[in-house]
UniProtKB/TrEMBL annotation:
InterPro entries: Ba3-like_Oxidase_I, Cyt_c_oxase-like_su1_dom, Cyt_c_oxase-like_su1_sf, Cyt_C_Oxase_1, Cyt_c_Oxase_su1_BS
Transmembrane segments: 11-33, 53-75, 87-107, 127-152, 164-192, 212-234, 246-264, 276-300, 329-348, 368-391, 403-425, 457-483, 513-533
Source organism: Planococcus chinensis
Chain ranges of the Cytochrome oxidase subunit I profile domain: 1-484
UniProt similarity note: Belongs to the heme-copper respiratory oxidase family.
Protein's UniProt name: B(O/a)3-type cytochrome-c oxidase subunit 1
Amino acid sequence: IAAQDRKIALWNIGVAYTAFLIGTLAGLLQVFIRNDALQLPAWLDYYQILTAHGVLLALVFTTFFIFGFFITGMSKSIGTFGPKVRLFSWIGFAVTLLGTILATVMIVSGQASVLYTFYAPLKASGWFYVGLALWVVGTWISSFALIGHYMVWRRKHKGEHSPLFAFMTITTIIMWIISCLGVVATVLFQYIPWAFGFTDTINVELSRSLFWYFGHPLVYFWLLPAYMAWYLIVPKLLGVKVFSDSLARLSFVLFILFSIPVGFHHQLTEPGISNFWKFLQVVLTFMVIVPSLMTAFSMFATFEISGRKKGATGLFGWFRLLPWKDVRFTSIFIAMAFFIPGGAGGIINASFQLNEVVHNTLWIVGHFHITVGTPVAMTFMGLTFWLIPYLTGRKFTKTMQRLGFVQIITWSIGMLLMSTAQHILGLLGAPRRTAYSGYNDHPAAMEWFDGLLTNHVTMAVGGSILFLSAMILIYIVIMTMFLSPKAERPEDFVEFPLADSDKENTPKFLEQWTIWIGIAFALIFIAYAIPIGDMIQNAPPGSAGFKTW
Ligand code: HAS
C-alpha cells in the first residue's frame, strides 16, 4: 500500500502499543496490590490504577489498533486513499489522541478514578468527560474517512460486491457509530453539565442505561476486527478460500441488528427497569450469540477443508495438519480456543437468573479476560507479527518468530491461571472492583483464597507471567517498527495474508445498508423507547437527566 497510508496506520499502531505498555504495567501493579506485596504511595490509589488499566487497554489500545488494521486493509483491498480521505484520517487520529491524552492525564492525576465504565454515581473532573467526547468524535472522523473511501469505490464499481475486508470494516463502523450515540448523549447532556457544576445532580439510571446502550456493542467493536482476521487471514494462512462469503457477510450484518438493543443485560440487577424490558433484551442477547456460532461453524469448516486438502482423514485428522509452526496462525488459534469458554461464560451472564449469581463478582473480571483479554488481544498479537513488518518493510526474522511463540505461550498460561482463579473466586462470592482484597479478614472471605488456583500467589504468578509476555511483545513491536533489518530480497518481504472469497452466490441485499440500519433502529426503538421514556419522566428534581416534569 502507499507510503502515506502506511504512515497513518503505523502512527495508530504506535499509539496503541504505547497504551498497551502503560496499561499492562498498571495490571501488574494491581495483582501485587491484591497480594499485599505492594504499598502504594499516598498520591496513587487502587482505583486510579484500575481505571488506567481498563481505559488504556480496553478502550485506547483496542481502538487505535483497530483503526491501524482498518486503514491498512482498506488501502490494500479497495485502493490507495485519496487526499481527502488521508486528511480526515489524520484529523481523526489527532482528535482521538488529544481526547486520550486529556482523559489519561485526568486519570493519572487522580481526578478521574471512575473505572473504565465511568458511569454515575461515580464522578470525575469535567475535563475527563471532555476527553471522552473528543475521543469519540475522533473515532467518528476516522470512521467517516473510511466510509468516504468506500463510497468512492462503490461509485466506481456499480453493482459489484465490495471486497469482504471492506464490507466487514464498514459493518463494524456502522455498528460503532450507532452505538456511540448513547455515550455521546450521556456525556454531553448529563456528565459534562453535572461534573462542571451546571446541574446539582444526575439521573443515574438514565446515564447507566445510555452507557450500556453503548457499552455492549463496544465489546463487538473489539471482537469484529478479530473476526475479520478469523474469516479473512486464517484461511489464507491455511492455503484455502473463505468458507462462505455470504455466511461471513450475514454474520456481520446480524451484529448491526442485535449488538445494540441488549444493554440491559448489564443492568439485570438494577431496580429502575421493569422485568419485562430486561427479559426482552435477554432474548435479543440470545440472538446476538447466533453470528458467533456461525463464525465457530465457519472456522471448523475452514480447518477441515484445509486438512482434507492436505490428505487428512477421520473426524479430527485435520487438527494435526494445521500450520502450528506459524506464529501468526497459532496465536489466532489459541485466541479462538479461549473464546469457547469465554462465549459460554457470556451465555451464563446473559441468562436472567444466573446473572444473579455472577453479577459484580470476580467471575465477570474472569469473563472479560477470556473475551477481550485473550481472544481479541491474541488475535491482535497474531496480526501484529505481520502487520508492522508489512507496514515498515522490515524483516520478521526467525528470532522474532521464536520470541513470538514465547510471547503467545506465556500470555496463554498467564491468562489461564488468572482467569480461572477469577471465575472460581467469583462463584465463591468474591466481589469485583474492591480495594479491600483482605475483606477485613472475614473468615468466609479468607476461605475463598485457600484453593490452589484461587490463591493470591497463583494470581500474582499469572499476572507476572502476563507482564513478562507483554514486555516481549513490546520488544517485538519496537524491533519490527524501528530496528529489524530492512527486507531487500523478495522472499524477505512480509505479505498481507488476505484470503480469496467467492462472491458469485452472495445476495446483493446483504450490502443494502439502509435495510440493516433501518431494522437496527426499529429494534433499538422497541427495546429502549418505553423504558428510557420512563427514566426521563421519573428524573430526580434538578438533575441532568434530562428535564423534570
Ligand atoms: Fe460479555 C460482561 C454477555 C461476549 C466483554 N462482557 C462483559 C464485560 C466485558 C465483556 C468487558 O449478559 C464486563 C463489563 C463490565 O465491566 O461491567 N458477553 C455476553 C454474551 C456474549 C459476550 C452473551 N463479552 C463478550 C465479548 C467481549 C465481552 C466478545 C469482549 C470482546 N457479558 C455478557 C453479560 C455481561 C457481560 C450479560 C454482564 C455481566 C454482569 O452481570 O455484569 C456473546 O457474544 C458470546 C458469544 C460467543 C460464543 C462463542 C463462539 C465461539 C467461537 C470460537 C470457535 C473456536 C474455534 C477454535 C473454531 C457463543 C467463535 C477451535 C479450537 C479447539 C481447541 C477445539
